[in-house]
Amino acid sequence: MLSIAAVIVMADYFLKIPGTSAVVTDLQNWGVILSAFALGYGAVNLFYVHTRHISRRTPGQWPYSICLLVMLVLFSVVGVSLKYTGPEYQWLYNSTLFALSATIYSSTGFYIASGCYRALRARNSEAAILMIVGLIVLLKNAPALAVGVPILVTMENWLSSVPTTSAQRGIMMGAALGAIALGVRTMIGRETGFLGRLTEAER
Amino acid sequence: MSKQEKNIWEKLENLPREFLYGLLLIAFIVPMINPMGLPLPVTPEVKKWYDTIEALPSGAAIIIDQGYSGGGEPECGPFAVAVYHHIFRKGGLRVIGVATTQEGPLLWDKAMAEVNPEKYGRKYGVDYIMLGYFAGVETAMAALGKDLRALTSTDYKGASLDQYPVMQGIKGATTVNLLICYTTGGDQSEGWVRQWYTPYKTPYLCNVLALMMPTMLPYMKAGQIVSLTSGAQAGQMESLVKVPARGIAGADVMTFTEILVSAFVVVGNIAYFGRRASKKKA
Amino acid sequence: MAIAMDLASVTSIWLAALFTIWAYSYTFRDNVWFKFAEHIYVGAAAGNLIVLGIDNVIRYGWLPLTKGSMLYIVVFLLGILLYSRYHGKYFWISRFPLALMVGIGIGLSMRSTVTSEFIAQIQSTVTMKVLGVADPWTAFSNLVFIIITLCVVYFFVFTFPGIHKGNLGIISKIARYSMMAAFGYSFANGFLSRVTMIFGRLDFLKSQWLPLPGAMVALPIVLVLLVYAMLPAEKRPWPKPTKSK
């Protein structure tokens, strides 16, 4: 089923076979709907794990599990019954998820600053290059310095357009080859990791 | 070298993290309380972004992927808002919003509340619309590009698309003049290249987190992206559009914090080499 | 109604501010307030996924079905079968819808990856001019670009033994140095990203929370409670640490 779907989708792109266009349109729409169904996987897992914590009264965890499940149910009930485009859901989102998401994402900035202090040290030639390039870009990213010290902009432009872009291009091409190889292996059945756990017979 | 001097190098090399965090907080708070209006240069990429939208003819349709999450809103949000100001003030353009992240429609509402398109005389359904979140990332992008109307018949509030003049003639990627993506995810920014630019050659403007810029640079170099910018350049876009907001307000903070962290790097290296030299002498 | 709306906004800002401060507290030390905020975040994120998932299923699946596209019954069946993976005996049934999803994804990504991440990149590299360029610095930069790209692609070839050893080791060395430059660039830009994000939250606290009545009084109290929560359990007079059996 996997290979057939993949071949049909690829054939529609490279060849003009009558009838495949409509089939691929339907397949893509089905893919969106199935992805939507799959969004519930995380919630089901969370329910399973945290109800176990609550039933077993795991010390230091079960009160937090209650909070988690209450929040999950609250969001689900409000979003489904009152629509997620309504002001109630917006209120809930702005008060909790948005604030927490933005804060947790940004808190790694403190660790990166500490990392700049501890890790960007010229211990050897490679670390020295990492440090020098990092330092130039850090200084150029200060807007007032970029205006006051134009040589920083020239150096950063060269660093971004030559070594960074070329290295990233090389990495991208290597990754693309790997992705193609992985796709072919999956299509011929050599990669079965996505299938999940094995049946008794397969073991 | 005496034992006391050796301790100085070791102390300097192992400053406690709370001290570093405290200094960083001060570097944030001082320019916020006392803004200095330090200069802010406009880079060629932001200018190109601005000129691309400016050059769009009347009636042009723009698909905008509100693809950033709540975590990336402080960075991508100000840039997106500045661009919306530009588009709505220019007028004559049709904005079709889609979202490839779950928080996209909610952040769209947030951005629209900040922009207030009605003050430019723009109306929902006539000048702009939000189609909602589409699960599946690249699968959704491919489906939207091939036949948008086959995938969805309603906007994000469930109202039929047929009643909205903004959707007239919009079928898929071939009927769209420009693709804009604001995103915090590599899946989205690269996915649009694969699913829209590669088959349909739709011009593509991409705004990502600053840390994602290096991975997207090869696409821009190969001409697959018209202009690649980061959310940290929001202040530049605000100065071009002449709507000062969070981006310009953050420019002073960027100067202070970047200089401070550069000082961290220099101090760390001085301490490292100082300790090595003192060990050799001993 | 106007007073109720104002109260709703004020409550929302207060909640958001408290969650912001509690979430940031982890940078100094783990504490109960952070754990609470973290679990709220995970629950809210999962709830949001459920809401958007149901919305997608209804708008893109149920609506076409009610309008006569009976083939969508198959999609609904496949979607429900996805959840058979939680069954002890019949979990293998979920492989069918999963295979369809993976197959569509592979087809979509592979068909364009060859063009966008391989051919277009090669095209862009080989069309870079080295000879006949007026500016010698541009010619030099283009030459360096081509060399680095080739070296980095070579670096990731592991098929043949010994191709990274001996005199050929210089190619890997050039690749490593240029990747270090790229990673240094990424690292510095990563900090820039986080600076703008931290500024966004601090700007919210300063411009939306602190002007509210009581916020200036609450801020030192919240900070004292946080510092107290970060103290080691033995040094806190309350709550007493529970002794493990």
Give a written overview of the molecule.
The complex is a heterotrimer of chains A (203), B (282) and C (245). With 203 residues, chain A is mainly α. Chain A contains 8 helices and no strands. Helix content of chain A is 80%, strand content 0%. Chain A has helices at residues 2-14, 20-38, 40-56, 62-81, 87-119, 125-140, 143-148, 150-187. The model of chain A has no long low-confidence stretch (mean pLDDT 91). Chain B has 282 residues and is an alpha/beta fold. Chain B has a single domain (44-249), classed as 3-Layer(aba) Sandwich (Rossmann fold), CATH 3.40.50.10160. Helix content of chain B is 53%, strand content 12%. A 6-stranded parallel sheet of chain B has the order 3-2-1-4-5-6, with helices on both faces. The longest helix of chain B is centred in the last third of the chain and has 31 residues, at 251-281. Chain B starts with a helix and ends with a helix. In chain B, 55% of the residues are buried. Chain C is mostly helical and 245 residues long. In chain C, helix 1 packs antiparallel against helix 6 (169-209). In chain C, 40% of the residues are buried.
Please indicate the percent range of residues of chain B in DSSP E strands (runs of 2 or more). 5-15%
Largest interface: A-C, 120 and 115 residues
CATH architecture of chain B: 3-Layer(aba) Sandwich
Count of the separate structural domains of chain B: 1
Oligomer: heterotrimer
Beta-strand share of residues of chain C: under 5%
User: Would you list the SSEs of chain B in sequence order as H and E?
Assistant: HHHEHEHEHEHEHEHHH
Give the strand order of the largest sheet of chain B, numbering strands 1, 2, ... along the chain: 3-2-1-4-5-6
